[in-house]
Design goal:
By secondary structure, the protein is α/β, with parallel strands linked by helices. The protein has one domain: Rossmann fold. The protein contains 5 helices and 5 strands; from the N terminus they run βαβαβαβαβα. It has a 5-stranded parallel beta sheet with strand order 2-1-3-4-5, with helices on both faces. α4 links the parallel β4 and β5 (100-103). α2 (34-41) runs parallel beside α3 (61-71).
């Protein structure tokens, strides 16, 4: 079972994404801000994927993603789920290590497709590493 860390300061969004993902068979870990996310990342049981809001108090999602890439993992897919929707936001999300970008309000069918794609890429990378 894959685990997904959902990081959003909006409790309604965290809860709705959690309910959806659990119905899809994922284990869900919740964090209400970037600091809590980074604390979870310090654990040995890192998530298989992170869904990360951009606009949060104290640490933005961009700062959190950059910290994850520099200090914890370069391979965990990071999916930005945000209200931001400019091309600048998209470029910034990839510059800090994001894997995908989807805007709120969330289309759960699209979210599911993106998650499946990201997890499939992760499996392929793992297989290729073992072949070396």
């Amino acid at each position: 079972m894959y685990s997904i860390l959902v990081v959003d300061d909006d409790a309604d969004i965290r809860d709705s994404v959690k309910i959806f993902l659990e119905k899809e068979g994922y284990k869900v870990i919740l964090a209400k801000n970037g600091k809590e996310c980074l604390s979870i990342m310090k654990n040995k049981n890192k998530p298989d994927l992170i869904i990360l809001d951009v606009m949060m108090p104290n640490l933005s999602g961009y700062e959190v993603a950059k910290n994850i890439r520099e200090n914890f993992s370069s391979s965990i897919p990071i999916l930005f789920l945000t209200i931001l929707n400019t091309s600048n936001d998209l470029v910034t999300s990839f510059d800090v290590g994001g894997s995908e970008f989807i805007t709120k309000p969330c289309n759960f069918k699209k979210l599911k497709e993106i998650i499946e794609k990201l997890l499939a890429k992760k499996i392929i990378k793992r297989i290729n590493v073992h072949k070396l």
